[in-house]
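Ticket #4471: structure output looks truncated?

Reporter: J.K.
Steps to reproduce: submitted the chain below (280 residues) through the standard prediction queue, then opened the result file.
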Amino acid sequence: MADTAAITTYRYLRISMVGAVVLLAVSIAIERAQVDCWQTSVSAYYYTPTRAIFVGVLMAVGLCLIVIKGSTPWEDATLNAAGMLAPIVAVVPTSDVGTCWSQTPRPLPVDDNGKLADWVVANIDNNITALIVTGIAGLIVAAVIASIATRNMKAIAEVGPVQMRLGLLGAMAFLVAGAVTFALWEGFDTRAHGLAAVTMFLFLAIAVGINAWQHRGDPAPRAYFWLYAAIAFMMVAAGAVMFPLGSRWDHMVLVLEATEITLFAVFWLVQTKEHWYETA
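Returned output as attached by the reporter:
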């Protein structure tokens, strides 16, 4: 019974990832139906009535990417990295706020000097501080629980596979680096979103590529190898082709984000099918 429950939970988690992406797409479609234009990016829908769904979906997706374990330590590491970046993309909004709103945000998200409004900065300060404090507290609690459960004060450093211990160390390093960056980088409020988003999609593309590499020696038919390789290639190629168009095409980021999200969702569905009947 326990094994059945665990497998069912695993399947539901994987399916819920795709459901979250569909939820965001539907919310954006509803907003689009109210106006005759598009925002310049998916991220810019933060400043529309879609905001709650946008933030909620990214938080949920980030959690799922961390909780669901990859089939190899490298895949797991890339999914974890992407999962830790997703909340930053969610709560540090893009500074390119767009102008296509069914309801104009009041106060406006940028002031007369082009700087983010005080209410946006206050949101960022509150949310990032909460993420850092909760993340560090969570790792400390995990260490304490491991020590109590094993009666070993060094449990977090000695118990479990090496890759798990390295993953926990990496998570702590990420949180400490994030805290330092947040405290000292003057451009955090305006540039952290873009940097986190690009890096998140890069890690997701690497995760897809890792899956292709795992299947490189498969006997024919090699459907999974070719599917994963094609998706990884398209994710990288989309960025390489579209980025140079950014200064000449207002909606380049919108199309690029939608493309990357769609490609990863396709990968996730294919991988879910591949692992559907696995029991261990």
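Triage note (M.O.): checked the attachment and the full token line is present. The chain is about 70% helix and 0% strand.
Status: closed, working as intended.
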